[in-house]
Structure formats: C-alpha cells, structure tokens
C-alpha cells in the first residue's frame, strides 16, 4: 500500500515538464563536455600520428563550426527515444495484458531516461576527475559495464558497443521501465519485466544487431 | 487476436535478428579468411584506364614497397592524399602506388588531371568496376591503404593516414 502511494507520487508529473528539464540538463552537460573534454588538445592527442597536423587543425575547426548541431540534437534524440520506446511498451502492454495509456508510457520512459543521463554524467565526470584517462582510452570507457572487466584491446571493434551495453545503468533502466509497467498495468514484477524484455529488450537487440552489422562493414 | 498479433510481431523480429545474425556470422568468417589471404599480395584483377587487365603478373615480381589505395575521386580525404603524393613525391620515389577505384572512367580521368598524378610515373590508377576490392583485401573503406613489401603485408590503414605511416616498416596500430 505504502509502496503504491510512493509509486503514485513518482509518476504524478507532466511528461513535457520533465522532458524540458532533462533536455536542458543534456544541453548544459554537452556544453561542459564540448568546453572541457572535446578540446583542441583532446583531438590533437587522439589523432596524433594518424593524420597530418594541418588535418587535425581542420578537424577541430570543422567541429567548432558544427558544434551547435550537438546541442540541437540532444532534445531531438531524447524525444525520439521516448517516442519509440513508449510506442514499443504501449504495444507490448496492449498485447500482453491491460493496456497502458500512451501518455503514461511516455512518463515511464522519461523517468528511466534519467539513468541514461546519469551514466553520461558519470562518464564525463570520470574523464574530468581522473587524469589517468587519456582521450584514446576515454573513447572506449563505459562506466560500470563488462568492458571495464576486460582488456579492451583484445575485443574486436564491432563487439565493443554490444558489450558496453551490458552495464549496471542498463539494468537500472530495465528495472525503472518494469516498475512503471507494473504500476500502470497492475502486473506482477515478473510479468512486467517480461513485457519490458519483449518490447524494449527486443528493440535493443535489433539495434545492437544493426550496429554490429554496420561496424563490420567498416572494420 | 492479440495472441496472433504478438506472435506475428515476435516472429518478424526473430526472423530479422536471425537473418542479420547469420549475415554477421558469415561476414566475420569471410573477413577472417580474407584477412589471412591478404597477408600476402592476393591474386587481384583490376583494369587500367585503357581497359586492359592489370593483375599480379603485371607487377613483374615487383618486390619493393607497394602501396595499394582504395579511393574515390569524390572523397575529400582521397583528394588530400593525392595532393600529398605529389607534394612528397621524392619520399615516394622508391614505391609503386596502385590507386584502385570503382568510379567511372570520366571522373577518374578528371581526378588524374586535377591532382597532377601524371607527374608521378610510379602511380597507376586502376578501375574496379565489379567492386571486387573488399573481396581481395577485406575492407571496402574509402580511403584505405594496404602496404606490401616483398609481397608481405606490412601495414594497413582504414581511413586517411600520413605519408610517413605508409613508408613505415614497422607495424602501426592506430
């Protein structure tokens, strides 16, 4: 009973309000990232020895020129994730048990998206606070993922992304989605997790397979 | 009805993942085989601009440094590399460079002229109309560079690289 009251409070927010706050947080985070992480020095270290100095300078200039895209893209990508995952959960819930209204699916997803923001925040903070993280190692640094337990140099490049998705943030994302499904469709934990696995999980699997396929073409 | 619909959606997703998984498995296997085969200069077959065939025999047992570049005349990185070839031609005088492309002969002719590649007799521009290059060397990234010496692969670079890297005898991992 107490748990239901708490969950009820957790979902008594307006989607667009949280979406705007999260979008703003993403823009601020990317501003900090672009200012303190992806600096000219970062690219010089990363590309040193790979291409000529003049090309590195050109890359940095080009990046500066198109920097605004990264700020515009954040809210759009967040909205895209919310719309797609909510659509999947809406369909899954409708087919597997009591339907969940689409606006409630949006609430479920945006709450889980806090975890994605948190993981990005931790990754950026680690780079800023840990001087041992070089730009090269930062590329393949995924906090709390199984790749942290492995020697990244021994993993084929096309497997790095799928393995990086096996992380504790992803577990938390699934739990938050299942919590929302459980609350809105009155399903049991097991059934709610099953709904999440067959909707969001299936989409994630398709996405990973597509990414491996594309990466293989460029390796 | 709901059950049937979920089975159809599940079936379609399963079919898609299985299909992609099969292709991924096949591609990994094929790339491994090609990777091993490309450790020594593979028996390639491309075409010169006069449409005559250019193959391994056309190299007449050439054993010095051979740089094979897969390029496209429209690619900015390839255009830059072509400029660097000409600018640093002294450094490259003991190499043979095969520039292979799937582009049409007209754009290749323009590229050859625009970047003054005719000033370098050690560059041969070849056509690969059937896009066989990835099958010989393993990757179809543009630009990509495969450096051979004594017919053995010394280095490969997927993407733009420095001229000095192409001249290195030690394995460079980027």
UniProtKB/TrEMBL annotation, chain A:
Species in which this protein is naturally found: Chitinophaga hostae
Protein name from the UniProt record: Yip1 domain-containing protein
Transmembrane segments: 12-32, 76-96, 108-130, 166-185, 197-218
Keyword set, alphabetical order: Membrane, Transmembrane, Transmembrane helix
Domain of life: Bacteria
UniProtKB/TrEMBL annotation, chain B:
Pfam families: Thioredoxin
InterPro entries: Thioredoxin-like_sf, Thioredoxin_domain
Residues passing through the membrane, by range: 6-25
Range of residues in the leader sequence: none
Thioredoxin domain sequence ranges: 51-127
Keywords: Membrane, Transmembrane, Transmembrane helix
Top-rank lineage group of the source organism: Bacteria
Keyword Ligase attached: no
Keyword Transmembrane in record: yes
Designated name of the protein: Redoxin domain-containing protein
